[in-house]
Amino acid sequence: MVRKAPQSERQYGGVYAAVAEAIEAEVGMFSTYTRAGRHIPPVFEEWRARGVLGATLEVPAYLLPRPSRLRLEPGRPMFVAVVSADDRVSFRAETTVETVERLGL
Question: Reading across the β-sheet that carries 88-93, which strands appear in turn?
Answer without folding.
Answer: 2-4, 88-93, 79-83, 57-60
